[in-house]
Every structure is written in C-alpha cells, then in structure tokens.
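Give me structure tokens for this 170-residue protein.
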Amino acid sequence: METSAPHAAGGGGFSRYRLECGRSSRAYFVTTWSGELKVVAVILLIVSFILLKRTQTAHVFIPMILLIESILYVFFIFANILALPRYLTKLLWPVFDMLNDFFAFIYLAYAGFFSIFNVPATTDKLYWQISIIILSVAFMSLADVVLQSFRIKRMNVNTKLKESIYSPSR
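Here you go.
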C-alpha cells in the first residue's frame, strides 16, 4: 500500500517521467506553436524530397539538404517530446533550436533560390512547385526563429552571470 502512494501523487520513477513528457510536449506544441511548424516542415521536406527524386531533375546537393534538415527537425521534435530540455538543463535548448531554425532558413533559402535560378535543361511544372515548397519551408523556419525568440524572452534563465550583474553591490 505504501509503494503505490508516491506513484499516485506523481512522485516516483516512470510516472513522473511520463508527467514531464506530457508537460514538455504541451509546452512545445500548444504554448509556443513551434512543434506544429516543425511537423509541417518535416512533412513538406519529405514530400519535396520524394518528388525531387521522382523527377530526377534536381542538383545533387538539394535532396541532401532536404534530408539533413528533415533529420535535424525530427531530432528536435523527439528531444522535446522526450522532455530532454527538462532533464539536460545545462544546455540552452531553445537557443539550439533557434540556431537550427536560422541555419535551416539559410540552407533552404539557398537551395530554393538555387533551384529557381539554375534551372536544369529539362524541367516540368512539378520542379517549380517543389522550389516553391522549399522556399515556403525556409520562411516557416524563419517564422519559427521569431517564435523561439519570444520563448527565450519569456524564459527565466538564472545564471551566475545574470545574478552577478543585477545583484546589488555589497
């Protein structure tokens, strides 16, 4: 009887971890809307990757950029679902997420504009639609940078540097 009391109160082991996973997922998907943007971006990147492989008109590095960015997006989605930011507190996860989104914007915008300005000899209408999808995902990652900056502003980061700067001198 005594062993079930901490589990009912959410105090021990796996039940506490499940509770933390739920809180982390809710904060990532509902509060900041960053999770929804990443899921939509992963879906669009995978669709554009498959369509580019189907048309076989793209340059070699464009599908590789799409695959690498989708893998990085999936990593950050699973890291937030598994509550890694709540347990690995020495890392500033929102900053890493924001940097990933910023570099994703740079890479995807470059890939999109490169595919628009350096058109292969044989193209079809699908090639242009894929280029627009890539550019839209790039601008979605830029919107996610803005959402992450709002999240960082709301965060209360207590570091020794902040405490030493704002503490009254003795």
